[in-house]
Amino acid sequence: MLLWLAEYLQQYMSAFNVFQYLTFRGILSIITALGISLIVGPIMIRKLAHYQIGQTVRTDGPQTHLSKAGTPTMGGALILIAIALSTLLWGDLENRFVWVVLLTTLSFGVIGWVDDYRKLIRKDPTGLPARWKYFWQSVCGFAAAFYLFYSAQSVEETTLIVPFFKNVAIELGVMFILLTYFVIVGTSNAVNLTDGLDGLAILPTVLVAGALGIFAYLTGNVKFSDYLAIPYVAGVGELVILCGAIVGAGLGFLWFNTYPAQVFMGDVGALGLGAALGSIAVVVRQELVLVIMGGVFVMETVSVILQVSSFKLTGRRIFNMAPLHHHYELKGWPEPRVIVRFWIISVVLVLVGLATLKIR
Description:
Strand order of the largest sheet: 1-2
Shape: globular
Structural class: mainly alpha
Number of helices: 14
Strand content: under 5%
C-alpha cells in the first residue's frame, strides 16, 4: 500500500526510491509488526481478561500448569493482525506470492479461531470437532496447492530441491499439489502441538521465519540464486516483507508470552503461523530444509505419533506424556529449562538449514 505511494512520490523526490529495496521494506515490516504487537498487546490482554477468555488446563498434565488456568488466550489474533497490517503496508500487493501466503495464513487462523471460540466462549470442551478441523484445513491447504501449481510460470516453481546436493532436483508434476498440502497442513498442526509452554512455539517460529526470509531474498534474486545454485523464482523475494512481519509480530507477542505468560496464542495463532511457515517454504522451494530448521516442531509431532501408536499397539507409553515437552516436565525439568533448551536446539537447526546454501 505504502509502496504505491512511494512510487508516486519518487517522481518528485528521489529519496523515496529507497522503498524499492526489499531489505529496507523488510526492516520496516519488522518494526511495524513489532510496534503493533507492543501497542495493541496490553489492550487485547485486558479485553480478554475482562471477558474471561482464559486458558483451561488438563488435570492429567504437569501439576505446575494448574496455576495457568484462566490466563488470557486467543492472543494469536494479535499476531495475525500485526502480520496482515504490516504486510499490507509494506508489501507489493500485486505480487501473487504475498497474497497466497497471507490468505493461507489467515484462513488457518480462522479455523483456529473457531476452535478457540467454541472451547473458551461457548464452553464446549471438544471445540471444533477434529474431523471438521481437518476438513477445513484440507480445503485451505489444497486451495493454496492448486493455485500455486496452476499459476506456476516456470518448472522451478514445482521442483523439489534436495539440500546438500548441488544438482539433485526432482520434477514433481502434479505430485507438487500433494506435497504442498502435506507441508502446509502438517506444519500448521506441528506448531500447534508445540504450543504448550510459555514462549516455546513462538521463538522457533520467529527463527524459522527469519531464515525463510533469507531464502526468499536469495531465491528471488537472479544473481544470488545463480551463485548459490538454487532455483530462481521471479517475485518470490517479496516474501521478505511477510517473513519480516512474522518476525516482528512474533517478537512483540513473546514480550507478553514469555515465562510466566500473560497471554497464550491459542489455536488461532498456532495454526495460522504454522500454515505461514509451510506455505512460505513451498514457495521458496525449501520444503526439506523446513524439516531441518523446524526440527523442534518435527520432534514434538513425532513424539505424539509414537506415543499414540505405541499405546494402541502394545498398551504401553514411550514417554511420560506427549508432546515431548511435557515428558521432560514430568521428569522434573523446570518449565523455563525446557523452553530455553528447545530454543537452543532451534537456533542450531536453523543455522544448519542456512548452511545448506553453501554446503553442496
